[in-house]
Design a protein that fits this description.
Blueprint (H helix, E strand, L loop, with lengths): L5 E4 L3 H16 L6 E4 L4 H8 L1 H6 L6 E3 L13 H7 L6 E4 L6 H10 L3 E5 L6 H14 L3 E4 L6 H11 L5 E12 L7 H4 L7 H17 L3 E12 L5 E12 L4 E10 L7 E11 L2 E8 L7 E2 L12 E2 L7 E3 L7 E3 L1 H18 L6 H18 L9 H14 L6 E4 L5 E4 L1
Parallel strand pairs: 1-2, 1-4, 2-3, 4-5, 5-6, 7-10
Antiparallel strand pairs: 7-11, 8-9, 8-17, 9-10, 11-12, 13-14, 15-16, 17-18
Helix pairs in contact: 1-10, 5-6, 7-9, 9-12
The protein binds nicotinamide-adenine-dinucleotide.
Length: 419
């Protein structure tokens, strides 16, 4: 499969904004083959197929749609992904982009069908499930890459390189925030991001917890999350404002604020950033990333159509943009693209480097490649990012217990408990 077929399970926002355009670009470069997308129903697939932006950026390219686009667009096909994955020849790639609670089933279905996996974050909701995935992938010599795209923002890689070269000493105290815009409350969030299922920290807090580990190599050991209950427009209740305290294995402390509450009239699609105070020898050190204001100020002559878009805007050139490099179409650029490409390229390499070998030898080599990826720690894998599942478990335990501290337990029986 040196040019793998790709099945994407899930046809929602992240597939539209990042995954499909990245895959289309790789397909245009001849690096991947046919793309299929399976969603719960055909409606989001029709939107993807009819997208004017994709027609302009990727002229002549298309994907196979499951369910097909004819007929009742809203009829659900909850188990269709099983058939679609079963129809894929072994050791191609399945991209998992369904709601969080479905990740485990889709990832395991893909692994049991001998497919490499690219999963959007969070891989799964418990550390125990991530361990099961790791073991299944190891048994079969398959890649599982978890797509934490902030890792591929060059500023994250710069901070990681310099931190690990000793330029900042040791992380002591930090703050991070990621607040999504208010209008999210009016979207499908109000149906699922309710107090029983999730909260603002669970949904977006993981990004900066992951980054602090990515930069420093430290591991979180305890979490407490204070959540404020608020009502969605439909009356459902959510923890729509959260303040989390994450303690690390060197005693450092990271405060993470998250919300569905950044004003719609404010510039940018959200507000976000990270500040880390460090110490080394007899000196203080600092890492400060403004991840929302990246130096661009635009003021348009009219109101753009997109939800949350403003006349005065501060667009990020870094996550995902389409640029005209002379065609054909437009080229996606940014760390959103690089992140997908990095994981896909690793799966392609694992196959091309073992092509033609006897299966026992190929399996041993694929396992070895996965262990190297794991150890390098640039791509998130079930093993090297399991702390993220532990943080989610501890965070939920804490928020549902009035913000009491929960501790993370690593090892063979990973989990979280109130301290
Ligand atoms: N920054 C990030 O890394 C980031 C950003 C956004 C979303 N995400 C993650 O991406 C995932 C999807 O989020 P989204 O915003 O695209 O959600 P969404 O609600 O827009 O889309 C979910 C998709 O899953 C499909 N789906 C649901 N049940 C299915 C089933 N049984 N079989 C096949 N398809 C099914 C739906 O049809 C829909 O197309 C979530 O895990 C989310 O946390 C990550």
């Amino acid at each position: 499969m040196t040019t793998p077929q790709v099945v994407v399970v899930g046809g929602g926002m992240i597939t539209n904004d990042q995954i499909l355009p990245s895959l289309y670009h790789m397909q245009r470069q001849g690096r991947i083959g046919e793309i299929s997308i399976c969603a719960l129903n055909a409606r989001p697939l029709k939107d993807l197929a009819d997208s004017e932006l994709f027609a302009r950026a990727f002229p002549g390219q298309s994907f196979r749609s499951f369910p097909a686009l004819g007929g009742d667009l809203d009829r659900p096909h909850a188990a269709l992904y099983r058939e679609v994955i079963a129809g894929l020849p072994p050791r191609n790639v399945v991209v998992v982009a369904v709601p969080d609670q479905l990740h485990f089933d889709v990832v395991m279905t893909a692994l049991q069908a001998n497919q490499h996996v690219l999963a959007v974050k969070p891989l799964v909701l418990t550390a125990r499930d991530s361990l099961i995935i790791e073991q299944e992938a190891h048994r079969r010599g398959l890649l599982v890459g978890v797509e934490y795209h902030k890792r591929f923002d060059d500023r994250s890689l710069m901070a990681r390189g310099r931190y690990r070269a000793g330029w900042f000493g040791e992380f002591r105290l930090g703050t991070a925030c990621l607040l999504e815009k208010w209008y999210y409350r009016h979207s499908n969030f109000q149906n699922w991001c309710t107090v029983e299922n999730s909260d603002a920290f669970t949904y977006v807090g993981c990004h900066y917890v992951d980054l602090v580990h990515f930069i420093t190599g430290l591991l979180p050991v305890a979490v407490s999350v204070y959540g404020i209950r608020d009502r969605y427009p439909n009356g459902n209740e959510g923890f729509l404002w959260t303040d989390a305290r994450v303690i690390w294995d060197n005693g450092a402390c990271l405060n993470v604020q998250n919300a569905l509450g950044f004003p719609d009239a404010a510039p940018g699609t959200n507000t976000q950033g990270l500040t880390m105070y460090c110490s080394g020898g007899d000196r203080g050190a600092l890492i400060a990333h403004s991840d929302q204001y990246r130096g661009l100020s635009y003021c348009y002559t009219r109101q753009p159509d997109a939800p949350g878009a403003t006349v005065y805007a501060e667009p990020s050139p870094d996550y995902f943009q389409y640029v005209d490099l002379g065609g054909p179409g437009l080229a996606p650029v940014g760390y959103g693209y690089r992140s997908i490409e990095f994981i896909m390229a690793a799966a392609i390499r694992m196959e091309s480097e073992t092509e033609g070998l006897e299966e026992a030898e190929a399996l041993a080599r694929r396992r070895e490649a996965m262990l190297q990826i794991d150890a390098a720690g640039v791509m998130a894998t079930p093993n090297n990012s399991r702390f993220n599942e532990l943080v989610l478990e501890a965070g939920r335990l804490s928020i549902l217990n009035g913000g009491r501290e929960a501790v993370l337990e690593y090892g063979e029986q990973p989990g979280a408990r109130l301290s």
